[in-house]
Amino acid sequence: MFKSKSIAVDGVGAAWPICLGYIPIGLAFGVLAQKAGLGPCEIFLMSLLVFAGSSQFIAVSMLDCGAASASIILTTFTVNLRHLLMSSALAVYFTKSSRKKLGLLAYGVTDESFAVNYSRLKAGKWDIERSLVLNYTANMIWIISTVAGGFGGQFIPAGAFGIDYALPAMFICLLVFQLNGQKYLFVAMLSGVLAVFLSLVLPGNMYIVAASIFSATCGTVLKKIFEKKSLKGRAHDQ
Amino acid sequence: MTNEYILMVIGMGLVTFLPRWAPLFFLSNRKLPEWLVEWLDLIPAAILSALLLPVLITTGDPRRIMLLQPELIAAIPTFIFALKTRSLGGTVIVGMFMFWLTGKLF
What we know:
The structure holds 2 protein chains of 2 kinds. By secondary structure, chain A is mainly α. Chain A has 2 domains: 2-162, no CATH class; 179-238. Chain A contains 11 helices and no strands. The radius of gyration of chain A is 20 Å and the shape is globular. Chain A starts with a helix and ends with a helix. Chain B is extended. In chain B, strand 1 and strand 2 form a beta hairpin. In chain B, strands 1-2 form a two-stranded antiparallel sheet. By secondary structure, chain B is mainly α. The model of chain B has no long low-confidence stretch (mean pLDDT 95). At the A-B interface, helix 1, helix 2, helix 4, helix 5 and helix 6 of A face helix 1, helix 2, strand 2, helix 3 and helix 4 of B.
């Protein structure tokens, strides 16, 4: 009982920056969805079953243009494919977790929950239970804000308190947490620069997956080459 | 709510859930080859940077480079604050304030 209380407190406590960021985006989504002709129940269903911000925005704007269901589903797939990389990176840290809990966790993997859970898992003071609490807290806030927006309320005036910057600021800090050593710094810089240029030329958000895979692969290969060189160098010295 | 809408949302949910679920199901609870672990270790730094940088220095649809915008200007003090304090909550608050401030000034 005592243990489950501390899990809940930790999980919710870590979720607040995400929630702060989801509220204005969720409200904005609800407003947009309502303008596209969706009612609160329809918004609720989409936020519950999909739970992926940018793809929901795209789906609604496609619905507004009268796109076919199949093309909306296909677009959703490509837009959300990046979660494949995030779940893969998370999987390394779950060595003794039940398949059922992993399934429950998978539902809530978003850019934001991944970033927070990963940095805490890597720091070693986090587990699947706390990750689940964080994911479902964020999920609940997302559903509530999108439905609230669907009632037509832009309850927070646009740009108020700099709240639109909550998520970028969170990502800045979580990226700083990742930069523990030259190889991470190199990969992050390469990936960032590449993502900027690819985002100008590639359609949709494929630039995220493309830049990440290319840069992480470069990092891994370069590390192997340097290791071989330094081994050879040492052998030559002796 | 039309049946067509319900089916579409179920389809969207499935194609979103599967990429989230498959790696957690197949890659967890097992020993992975060393190169894969090393590669996956670099993925978060790469993906966070790829998510963030275009937000800071591009704008519009289609995207174009835009350096002098509040997103990038506010990012500099926010980044320094994160580097010095390593506080997630503090960085979020400082970042929001800086963004609000640059919005007022420019």
